[in-house]
């Protein structure tokens, strides 16, 4: 479960500066369109933002990516076998809502957030059932009378295994925290 306080702080420091820049700079953007050098800079910033959004889309839709380097160009390409079906369905729904149904961005965002929350809750509810159907790891060895496996229960398993080896070679029980030793 994520730490709500940390998530809130991360969200705050990520988005508040963006909104401050937008609200403080919005009145001046129309005036700056006539300036050729500033328009070129804003075009470059727009291209960078589109690249960031595309990068986020790749990491949202696919679990793993591989970096391909061609000189100064570094490109992260997704591994097609690791696509996330839930994220793809929500993305396609969002595209349909915005472009086909002409919904507002706020309405689309709220609907997609609800779909994501519902998918998460359904997955968390179904996950224990899925895991119960999978075979478990090796079973614990059967115990002798009295429940003694020959290992120290209060120690780390590696230490308990060392204790068992020492006990077998010494012919005695090397576990000092077991009653009767």
Automatic annotation (TrEMBL):
What are the protein's UniProt keywords? Cell membrane, Membrane, Transmembrane, Transmembrane helix
- Name the protein family: Belongs to the chromate ion transporter (CHR) (TC 2.A.51) family.
List the InterPro entries.
Chromate_transpt
| Name the record gives this protein | Chromate transporter
Is-annotated flag, keyword NAD?
A: no
Q: Determine the domain of life of the protein's source.
A: Bacteria
Which portions of the sequence form the region Disordered?
132-181
The record's section on Pfam families has: Chromate_transp (PF02417)
Instruction: Identify its membrane topology class.
Output: Multi-pass membrane protein
Q: Which residues cross the membrane?
A: 12-29, 41-62, 82-101
**Annotated source species:** Actinomadura rudentiformis
Indicate, by first and last residue, each region the UniProt record lists as having compositional bias (Low complexity).
154-174
Q: Name one GO molecular function term.
A: chromate transmembrane transporter activity
Where's it found, cell-wise? Cell membrane
- Keyword Transmembrane attributed: yes
GO annotations of cellular component type: plasma membrane
């Amino acid at each position: 479960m994520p730490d709500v306080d940390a998530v809130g702080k991360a969200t705050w420091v990520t988005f508040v500066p963006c909104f401050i820049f937008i609200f403080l700079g919005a009145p001046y953007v129309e005036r700056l369109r006539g300036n050729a050098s500033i328009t070129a800079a804003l075009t470059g910033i727009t291209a960078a933002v589109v690249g960031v959004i595309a990068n986020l889309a790749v990491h949202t839709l696919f679990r793993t990516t591989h970096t391909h380097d061609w000189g100064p160009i570094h490109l992260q390409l997704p591994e097609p076998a690791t696509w996330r079906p839930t994220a793809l369905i929500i993305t396609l729904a969002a595209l349909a809502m915005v472009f086909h149904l002409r919904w507002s961005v706020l309405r689309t965002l709220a609907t997609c957030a609800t779909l994501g929350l519902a998918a998460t809750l359904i997955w968390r509810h179904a996950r224990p059932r899925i895991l119960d159907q999978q075979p478990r790891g090796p079973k614990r060895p059967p115990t002798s009378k009295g429940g003694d496996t020959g290992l120290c229960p209060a120690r780390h398993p590696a230490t308990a295994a060392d204790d068992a080896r020492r006990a077998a070679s010494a012919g005695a029980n090397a576990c000092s925290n077991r009653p009767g030793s």
